[in-house]
Amino acid sequence: MDWRLMMLIACIGSLSISPLGSKPNVRVLDAQSLTQHSAKQVQQLAESIAVKVLSKDFLGSGILIHRKGSVYQVLTNAHVLRSGNPPYQIQTPDGLIYAANLSKKSDRSISSYFKGNDLAVLQFRSPKINYTVASVGHASTLSVGNEVFAAGFPFDSQGIQDTGFVFRRGQVSLVLNKALEGGYRIGYTNDIVKGMSGGPLLNRAGQVVAINGRHAEPLWGEPYVYQDGTQPEPRLRKQMSQYSWGIPIEEFMQMASPSFTNNYSDTNIQAEVRQ
After folding, report:
1. Per-residue pLDDT tens for 138-151?
2. C-alpha 25: how far from its chain's center?
C-alpha cells in the first residue's frame, strides 16, 4: 500500500467523530491539571472579584460572576438581599458605588427561579471601567481535605458596617450527597461570619467553587434540614454545626444559560456612579 495512503488512513483513524447534532467534545480539567497559585495570588484574585452589596446600609458580599458588554452580574445570597430593601447598590473593588437591579424574572420570585437555592443575582452597568469577573470551577471535584479559600466583608461588632476585605484559608470538611435547604452542600473549616455571605469560596487554582452562606455554630433556626424535608442523624448534624457552608457553583451555572442571561434588561439599569 502506498505510504501516503497509509498516513491518510492513520490520520483519519485518530480523529474523534461525533454524531450529528451532538455537543462538541470539551476537555474537562481536573484539579491537578489546573495551574495551582500561591495563597497570595488567590487572595489577589479574590479581592478583584469580591464586591459589597449595599442598600441603605451594608448588607453582605457578592461575586463579579459575568459580564456582557458594559453590564455586570453579581452573584450573592438571596438572604443577603432580604436583609435590606431596594434600591440596591454594588461597591466594586476600586471603591466606586453603582446602582444595581434585580433581573425582572428574579425580581418576581428569587426562590422559585433558583429552585429553592439561597442565590440571587444583581446587575449594574459600568460603561467606562472594566472589572475582573470570576473564573468558575467545579465543586464536584472537591474532596474532604482539599484546601479552599473564603473571601468577603465581615460586619463590625455592632453589625452595622463592614470591617474590610478578609481572606481565610481552610479545608473542605464535608461534601453532602444531597443538599440542605438553600442548596448548601459543601462544609469547610474557613471561619465565615456575618457579612461574608455571598462571597466566593475558591480553590487553589483561583476558581470560584462555591458561594459562602452559613457560618458555624448558628445561634438560632434549624439550618440542618435537607431539601426533601428529612433531617440528618444527630451525630452528623452535630458535625455539620462545626463548619461553615457553601452552595456549589454548579447550582448557579445550571441557570446561567443564554436564556438566563437574556433575562437581564440594560434599560432597567440606572447609570448612577458615585465616589
Report:
1. 999 999 999 999 99
2. 26
